[in-house]
């Protein structure tokens, strides 16, 4: 693994914003997979630990038997955090074969599936999972907002869905659309919010003119028991 700097990471992430087509995105993440864990460390990317820390106190079931669907799982950073908190059973979904190969090497996942979120249906049965998590992928140019309905469908009645998004200027329109959809689904009785946690220091800023850290949000919803 090469020695990389924050400037390297910044250039990689800014180049990702230019790759808007699904095929380009997959190619980008396949190429980035080898350096991904090192790069998010340089970015001080806190979303996996922040999401796990928000979800953990909300979950009151048996962690040893609970089955977690890790959507846009990448290399397995979220599953690693949740394993420290007592969870043991993980199914991962990601669009990138390169990321899935690295996730497989962690030994955390009982099953891994490749899927282009938004272009293909989520490859799981409805009502199967105690917890569904999607960390980092709900943002402008990544996963469309409508996918959260599939996350809810995959969750068992009474189960939990944990989602994150960024709060920086470039993502504000997406964040507003996401929160509108979350509220529509709550109004329709599909789920209820358990915790919404806004975080100022989410990750280091990469886009001009932002400096320091950008903010982010963790949403935890509980699916209706009906």
UniProtKB/TrEMBL annotation:
- Looking at the record, the residues that make up the Methyltransferase type domain are 69-162
Superkingdom to which the source organism belongs: Eukaryota
Q: Which GO terms describe its molecular function?
A: S-adenosylmethionine-dependent methyltransferase activity
Q: Which SUPFAM superfamilies match?
A: S-adenosyl-L-methionine-dependent methyltransferases (SSF53335)
The family database entries (InterPro entries) matched by this protein are listed as:
Methyltransf_11, SAM-dependent_MTases_sf
Q: What is this protein called?
A: Methyltransferase like 27
Question: To which species is this protein native?
Answer: Oncorhynchus kisutch
């Amino acid at each position: 693994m090469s020695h990389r700097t924050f400037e390297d990471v910044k250039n990689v992430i800014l180049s990702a914003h230019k790759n808007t087509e699904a095929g380009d995105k997959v190619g980008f993440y396949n190429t980035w997979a080898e350096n991904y864990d090192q790069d998010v460390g340089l970015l001080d990317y806190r979303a996996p630990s922040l999401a796990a820390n928000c979800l953990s106190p909300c979950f009151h079931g048996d962690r040893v038997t609970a089955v977690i669907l890790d959507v846009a799982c990448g290399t397995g950073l979220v599953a690693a955090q949740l394993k420290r908190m007592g969870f043991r059973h993980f199914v991962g979904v990601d669009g990138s074969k390169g990321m899935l190969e690295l996730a497989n090497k962690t030994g955390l996942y009982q099953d891994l599936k490749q899927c282009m979120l938004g272009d293909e249906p989520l490859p799981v049965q409805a009502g199967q999972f105690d917890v569904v998590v999607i960390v980092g992928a709900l943002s402008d140019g990544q996963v469309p907002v409508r996918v959260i309905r599939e996350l809810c469908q995959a969750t068992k009645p009474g189960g939990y869905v944990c989602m994150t998004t960024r709060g920086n200027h470039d993502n504000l329109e997406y964040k507003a659309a996401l929160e509108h959809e979350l509220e529509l689904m709550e109004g329709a009785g599909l789920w209820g919010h358990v915790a919404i946690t806004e975080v100022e220091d989410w990750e280091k800023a990469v886009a001009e003119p932002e400096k320091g850290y950008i903010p982010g949000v963790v949403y935890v919803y509980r699916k209706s028991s009906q």
